[in-house]
Specification:
metal-binding, alpha+beta, binds protoporphyrin IX containing FE, Cytochrome p450, heme, 448 residues, steroid hydroxylase activity, oxidoreductase, cholest-4-en-3-one 26-monooxygenase activity, 3-stranded antiparallel β-sheet
């Protein structure tokens, strides 16, 4: 697109940074926000869901209104589905990809995209993050990281997860003894996955506060139409993470460990990652490794508090925990929305869809599709087919860390419930102000 990129870190790059940041915001968030606000005013249900905090608090009501219109509906975002069958088909088919097609975008938008590109600030939803890259590069990335997340490697993390859970629960004993309220997100649901993924990736766990702060700010970039102020906060957080990673990679080049990141840094065959790919891959693993699992844990605690009989049944028979985790993933999915780009002329649910257009998949709605799940609005930890949900997606982008997340949730929730059987949600849980991710920011509980 005719834009030359100054060398990262050079004086020219530094001088252009503010303008490039605003350009990136404008094309990725500012223009979509203006468009969605206009469409919401015109009554588009999906635009209202994304823009209106009241509707966002209870997305399922809107999901059901959309479902009533059919398996594929037109929306401000383009074709959209609430159907489990349609979402599965899209996720599993090579007629759809993850890369955005910018070729039909207006010239100024394409210019802003190229001008705004900045390797020192690339987020988890921008290439070369594997989330938004199609084969053959995607195949190469998955081959490299997949080895560290095989079922065997995941099972080997069991003692680590137990140790982390026990340490965090031990730290809660004094508050429990005094009968003091505790924010369970801050004290348990957030630190547990961050300590686990940091250990697995060989990054120093004493930076957990930094990771949590950076991760929370950066997670917002997954949402369409982020206001400039929040985008700038996310941009600062992502830059700080990249700076941290650059120092970390330099250390591992000098003193490699046994972990995945040391192997990625040292790889020298044709699979080896470029510096930019290395940053994108580790940033994604680190961020995805805790920003989603925290939501799963918080959502589970609130649901089990509201369904005490089911919680008591799990206390009596702990073999039910893995299925309970699946039911939480289905019922209150931590990742609510994803999308795919149509790669070739094709039909979906009998409707022609054009190459380059974007199909939006409401995973949270697909997971309550009555064609797959009987009485889908009922929370039932013994549901026979709970595991058929799409909370971890499907197809080639199926969550790399699904096994780890399942293990963490089953171990952590069992340990928490057995340690504090009298745990109650005592205050009003506060949802995170996010649309793509769904979970709690604050979760006040008493433990005994
Ligand atoms: C409850 C916890 C989690 C949920 C609900 C979740 C959900 C998802 C979903 C829905 C996707 C695919 C998005 C799409 O198809 O567009 C995904 C991809 C991914 N997840 Fe997770 N995830 C969780 C935990 C983790 C953990 C613990 C890790 C850490 C290893 C992780 C790493 C990844 C990576 C690297 C990808 C990209 C895979 C690819 O593009 O090929 N996730 N996750």
């Amino acid at each position: 697109m005719g834009t030359t990129t100054p060398v990262a870190g050079s004086p020219a790059a530094r001088a252009l940074r503010p303008a490039r940041t605003v350009a990136r915001w404008a094309v990725r968030h500012g223009m979509p926000a203006a468009y969605l606000t206009r469409e919401a005013r015109r009554g588009d249900l999906v635009a209202r869901l994304l823009r209106d905090p009241v509707l966002r608090a209870d997305p399922h009501t809107v999901h059901e209104q959309l479902r009533a219109r059919g398996p594929l509906v037109g929306s401000a975002l383009g074709p959209l589905t609430t159907s489990h069958a349609v979402a599965s088909e899209v996720l599993r088919s090579d007629r759809f990809g993850v890369g955005f097609d910018w070729s039909a975008a207006p010239g100024p938008a394409r210019w802003a995209l190229a001008f705004g590109d900045d390797p020192t600030a690339t987020g988890v939803a921008e290439p070369p993050s594997m989330l938004v890259v199609d084969p053959p590069d995607h195949t190469r990335y998955r081959r490299l990281v997949g080895r560290a997340f095989t079922p065997r490697a995941t099972a080997a993390a069991d003692p680590l997860v137990r140790r982390v859970a026990d340490t965090l629960l031990d730290a809660l004993e004094p508050a429990a003894a005094r009968g003091e309220p505790v924010d369970l997100v801050a004290a348990f649901a957030a630190p547990l996955p961050v300590l686990v993924i940091a250990d697995l990736l060989g990054v120093p766990t004493d930076r957990q506060e930094d990771f949590l702060r950076w991760g929370a700010a950066a997670a917002a970039t997954l949402d369409p139409g982020l206001p400039l102020r929040r985008f700038l906060a996310a941009d600062r957080a992502i830059r700080a993470l990249h700076r941290f990673l650059a120092g970390h990679f330099a250390r591992l080049r000098r003193e490699p460990g046994e972990d995945l990141v040391s192997r990625l840094v040292a790889a020298s065959d044709e699979d080896a990652l470029t510096d930019r790919e290395l940053h994108a891959t580790v940033l994604l693993l680190l961020g995805a490794g805790f920003e989603t699992t925290v939501n799963l844990l918080g959502n589970a605690v609130v649901l089990l508090d509201a369904h005490r009989d089911q919680r008591n049944a799990l206390l009596a028979d702990p073999t039910g925990w893995p299925n309970a985790v699946e039911e939480v993933l289905r019922f209150d999915s931590p990742v609510q929305i994803t999308g795919r780009t149509v790669r070739a002329d094709t039909e979906l649910a009998g409707v022609p869809v054009r190459p380059g257009s974007r199909v939006t998949l409401l995973l949270g709605a697909a997971n309550r599709d009555p064609d797959v799940f009987a009485d889908p609005g009922r929370f039932d930890v013994s549901r026979g087919n709970a595991r058929d949900h799409l909370a971890f997606s499907a197809g080639i982008h199926y969550c790399v860390g699904a096994g780890l997340a399942r293990l963490e949730a089953a171990v952590a929730l069992r340990a928490l419930t057995e340690r504090f059987p009298g745990l109650r949600v005592t205050g009003r849980p506060v949802r995170r102000d996010l649309q793509t991710l769904r979970g709690f920011e604050h979760l006040p509980v008493t433990l005994r």
